[in-house]
Amino acid sequence: MITQSQESLEMLVMVSRLLSSKLDISELLTTIMRLASRVVGAERASLYLLDEKTQELYFDVALGLPEDVQKMRFRLGEGVAGTCAKEGKSTIINDVASDPRHSKKADNKSGFVTRSLLTCPMIIKGKAIGVVQAINKADGDFTDTDKNSFEAFASQAAIAIENSRLFSSVKEEKRKMEIVFKRIKEGAILTDVNGEIIILNSSAKTYLEHDKYKFTNIAKAFQDFEAKPALDQVLAADAPVSRLELYREKPKRFFLDASAIKLFKEDKEGNQVAEGRLWILSDVTAQRLEERMARNFLSLISHKFKTPLACINGYAQILKDEAAAAQGLPEVIGKSSETIYGQGQKLNALVESLLDFVTIDNLDSPSLEKIEFDAADFLGELAEDMKERLKAVEGLSIKIAAPEPVRIKADRKLLAGAMRSLIDNAVKFNPGRDKLVILSAQSRDNHALLSVGDNGPGIPGEELDNIFHKFYQVEAAFTGQVEGWGLGLSLVKKVAEVHGGKVFAKSQLQKGSAFTLALPN
After folding, report:
1. Residue 84's pLDDT band (cuts 50, 70, 90)
2. Which of 41, 71, 204, 380 could form a disulfide with 187 if both were Cys (CB 3.0 to 4.6 A apart)?
3. What are the backbone dihedrals phi and psi of residue 64, each rounded to the nearest 5 degrees, phi first?
4. pLDDT recorded at residue 475
5. According to the CATH classification, is domain 184-283 in 3.30.450.20?
């Protein structure tokens, strides 16, 4: 003979299987409603969910109830259901007419007569997410055995609802991510830590010819491209964001600027663990070709200017010297020859800076002549050289701060040129009477840091991101601008990058600026 407890156990096993097979929230709640009455042999059941914002119970699914009843809400602590949700305890009421906790709002509107109630909270992580009720025991009264069975059912229902919500949340997040992937203009690829592709958008498919190659990992995706730095270096890098440029010569020149962004998750100990990368690809072909044309044009005009400039400057010096030595010439001849000579020298310096720009802008890492040297010795030689070059500048003081031994591996000549450019800027943009320049060196995070600090007027914060752009100059009204192309800091940036490093600036208005080259050891 099968006992009641065996029947309850079999019912709960069946219920568990049914609930675990439902992931759609509407279908799940309807199933819970239909099973709830069968678990304890009740005439019908009610299911309330908790609105987290308003802290009210509401009918999400109300089978057989009138529409105005379905819209009803109960505050926490109101009625049997509200009290159950607030206290988190199950309740048996076999004579609701004599229990003051019973709210007659639903009965009055539906015309249904409630005689007995078995009410259980649905609890997840110690917090009630709703209430399930069995209404009117079909045969006799609700018992403690019914309560135990119904509590087990409520627990399974709570878990199923939470799983369904999590599933719906994941689906929604995936849907949003797919929308973003599809709509953004840039190519986007999501990979795991090993570079296996999880998802990519239409732009990435177009850029990398996915329909042709059907690649499944990032290495195959970039197989037709030359990558700088190499893809292996990017995949092995510890930095949260890595930049690289992809270039393909055929069937036509194609440049992609790429960022590889590490994605992290927390392990059981709360540590950040990499779980993949997001690759963002931007088509910069037009920009790169334009830059190449600009470099070629600048190189051409610079070389074309040199020969006539050499001739003009040579004769200008002869005229200036002859005018100075001759007697009785009008004063205007002397002044004119001085002006022609001086402006010729300035123009020659501008042309030389353009040639330097073209030369350095075409540099790549393999062409560097790297040697290892001591930072303090390097700064000492640099300071002496600049003092000689700038000896005509009044009130100039160049000091060195190198408290610890720092070794640098770099192209010494190229690095000296970059540092001289920073020192020149520190002097010529400082209108003060006493001009202080401090050269410093330190080692930090596997990088050698070389800095040029000054006591000049400083740079407005909004300009700090722009000053390293080619041909960019801060407003003349602020800097007391002097002649130049606005290429000095751009060249410094190029020197840093070709060494695998970077340059950055810090500044405080009316107190000075500091420019730092960070080069990997």
Report:
1. very high
2. 204
3. 80, 5
4. 47
5. yes
